[in-house]
Design goal:
Length: 347
């Protein structure tokens, strides 16, 4: 029953954001300030899974649908429904046939047959899949391993088979695996310009990484405030734990990490986010969240392992180092830009 209640909470939050105009206000160009304020508010009131559910739609789904909507038809209709909060759309990109960091090898295929277009394959670890009204699927339209070999398919979620892939963690995110076994499509399920899907997806990922930075900053600040308050309340020696120099030193290191993340997020929000800067921000988020959550769990000790405590939050927030691009893969990409990055630093 608790899982069902949180699932209802996630869809109710999305509807309310639509009714209030927050979806439109926080998902358009120059919306980073409003988005940051909204994510901080959601993080303070809802479980991680619910915030993840909203974040993916605001940062990726809505911008993608906005790009696809000018073509009219199904994309425009679904965009308007999502913008009003009346429809939940799951972005189905991560593929069962390839590593999440190597979408060029994805195996979900869009084929043209005598009876019309057909979609065949599977997607894994898809946020909002469990209660989506529509699926926006990234599919291979040609066998050539090239950026132009991909297309968007927008279809009713009922055309696919969905099963849960994360139930113990991320409650409220609706994470599921999607089976697209030889699904017949109507012509209007094919949306967007041919050959543009991967480029549009990569552009959306930059926005999602900025949103991740805004959320990570708010989450770390909330956890540090809670930890600081508890350290000043809990007895230790002749005073409280905060009086211990080693405790303050560990806490200060967390503050330094948060300050660096704050500066990087501010820089990213100030202008166009280049691909390399987006990768740097993504890795910074993952490292900062890990350092802050691990530090606070250690500082609060056994208290962190209560039901719903910081230890559980640390397990869930490990996603910052995996979802949207694993840190290891991103570091490989960053290393390829070493000369450019070093030149920028020197100049």
């Amino acid at each position: 029953m608790p899982d069902l209640l949180v699932a209802a909470e996630a869809t109710a939050v999305w509807r309310e954001l639509g009714r209030s105009g927050a979806i439109e206000r926080c998902s358009g160009p120059e919306s980073s300030r409003a988005l940051g304020e909204l994510l901080a508010d959601l993080d303070s009131r809802h479980p991680v899974g619910v915030v993840l559910s909203v974040c993916v739609q605001l940062a990726s789904v809505i911008p993608l649908l906005r790009t696809l909507a000018p073509g009219g038809g199904r994309a425009a209709e679904v965009f308007e429904a999502a913008l009003s909060g009346e429809a939940v759309v799951a972005l189905a990109a991560t593929d069962e046939a390839a590593a999440g960091s190597d979408l060029m090898d994805l195996g979900t295929r869009l084929g043209q047959e005598a009876g019309g277009p057909r979609l065949d394959g599977g997607k894994r670890w898809i946020t909002n899949a469990m209660w989506a009204d529509h699926l926006l699927v990234l599919a291979r339209s040609r066998e050539t391993r090239h950026f132009t070999s991909f297309a968007w398919v927008l279809l009713p979620a009922g055309r696919a088979t969905v099963r849960p892939s994360a139930e113990a963690l991320f409650t409220g995110a609706g994470i599921g695996d999607v089976d697209l076994g030889d699904v017949g499509l109507d012509a209007d399920h094919l949306v967007g310009r041919p050959g543009r899907a991967m480029a549009e997806f990569v552009r959306a990922m930059a926005g999602e990484r900025l949103a991740g930075g805004l959320w990570a900053r708010a989450l770390c600040r909330r956890v540090l405030r809670h930890t600081c308050r508890r350290l000043r309340e809990r007895p230790g020696g002749d005073g409280v734990l905060w009086d211990n120099a080693a405790v303050r030193d560990r806490f200060a290191r967390c503050l330094v990490a948060l300050s660096a993340l704050d500066a990087e997020v501010a820089a990213a929000a100030a202008g166009p986010l280049r691909p390399t800067a987006a990768m740097l921000l993504k890795v910074r988020c993952a490292d900062t969240v890990d350092l802050v959550l691990s530090g606070c769990v250690d500082l609060l000790g056994a208290e962190s392992f209560r039901d719903g405590g910081l230890a559980s939050l640390r397990a869930e927030t490990a996603m910052f180092g995996i979802a949207g691009g694993a840190s290891g893969a991103l570091l490989q990409g960053i290393a390829q830009h070493a000369d450019d990055l070093l030149t920028e630093v020197v100049s």
